[in-house]
Amino acid sequence: MPIATVNPANGETLETYEAMDAEELERRLQLAEATFRTYRTTTCPERARLLNRAADLLDEDRPEIARTMTVEMGKPVGQARAEAAKCARAMRWYAEHAQELLADEEPAADDVKDSGGSRAVVRYRPLGPVLAVMPWNFPLWQVVRFAAPALMAGNVGLLKHASNVPRTALYLEELFHRAGFPEGCFQTLLVGSGAVDEILRDERVKAATLTGSEPAGRAVAATAGEMIKKTVLELGGSDPYVVMPSADVDRAAEVAVTARVQNNGQSCIAAKRFIVHTDVYDAFTERFVAGMAALKVGDPLEEETEVGPLASEQGRADLEELVDDARRSGAEVLCGGERPEGPGWYYPPTVLAGVTREMRIHREEAFGPVATMYRAADLDAAVLIANDSPFGLSSNVWTRDEAEVDRFVRDLEAGGVFVNGMTASHPGFPFGGVKRSGYGRELSGHGIREFCNITTVWHGA
Asked: What is the CATH number of domain 4-235+437-460?
């Protein structure tokens, strides 16, 4: 894929970029290593001052960078502004909390004595340059949720962003530079995906984090395993959205629409499989389909637009294949399901019923505004359907029965269980999945410690 800004609303190529050559890449790796030697010695308050400044600048730039994101990958501009605001809040959260999250820990006195020592402490130290391979769907947020904790921990960042969002990628490097971070603390590498393996093999790169597809995760994990380097992977998701009879069905259906079509349906944590108890299935489905069909699809730069185009022509083709396969295998299309006429990579909000295990869409992630409906006879059946997926990122459960909540929390195979609400990420909560959705955690204290050398310091008696 060329490194280029292509407007998905009309397919127009706005700008193409040359990939960095080997000489420039080497210069940047040298700079990252040299910068780390000194940046690692700065204090948390010093780093916090810089990160707060970056947050202030991002707030000032919000209208401009929101438009950039929308033009590059098609999200409605109001959602793009919200993403920028969320990034600024996350920066301030880490600036405020990093020092306590990374504070020295003292083992129990009895354990120190039993070890024959006089005192001991556990210290969190930075690793070095961390490679971040990031996707296009949340082109600011995905990067900031890595960069904010990594920089506060004393690491330096190397960003290999998706090739269709180069303007956003370059903006991020400029943002941290304008905020006063030393040159080399955060660098954007304009390279294709084929360069990732070589960069990860470089001894100066100490770890990697990737958000993206399962094949990309497998490739990075394989190389990192060979090189014995720490990785965090956040891959695909096909999150269940379970509705039980005690739920507020009207509210559940209303939230379900947003949960499915947020970011034009291109979100790993978007609810994709709607598993509804048979007692409320018809009522929920009627309201949900009506809500999906009523959404305004159009130019993402217009404020009233609720669903914009998919980010790429190939992405739309992949989504169409899943829907067509399900239709041929007997699924019922309750709304949508047909590509609209005209320019741009648009696809309508679509709901499929009668989905079976033999259909590809049951096993694969539908990355666009397509929902699948399942009827569950009881709680056990709902859990069985929910777990019948290779993914396990997050989950949504609607019930007012605390015993049911306990069962879902115990039995759902996912990195998160959101009760009576839709999945969302917040800097205070760990974020990540299980099964083929990846491993490791971003955000919270868990996220900032992922790329730290957890060091035991022991003193003899």
From this structure: 3.40.605.10
Q: Where are the domains of the chain?
A: 4-235+437-460, 239-426
Active site residues: 234, 268
pLDDT 10s digits, 354-397: 999 999 999 999 999 999 999 999 999 999 999 999 999 999 99
pLDDT tens across 52-93, in order? Answer: 999 999 999 999 999 999 999 999 999 999 999 999 999 999
pLDDT confidence of 402, banded at 50, 70, 90?
very high
pLDDT at 204: 98
Provide the mean pLDDT of the chain: 98
Please give the CATH topology (third level) of the domain spanning 239-426: Aldehyde Dehydrogenase; Chain A, domain 2 (3.40.309)
Residues whose CB is less than 8 angstroms from the CB of residue 156 and which lie 6 or more positions away in sequence, other chains included = 32, 35, 36, 39, 128, 129, 130, 150, 184, 185, 186, 187
Name the pLDDT band for 13 (thresholds 50, 70, 90): very high
Amino acid at 210: L
At residue 197, the pLDDT reads: 98
The pLDDT of 100-112, averaged and rounded, is 97
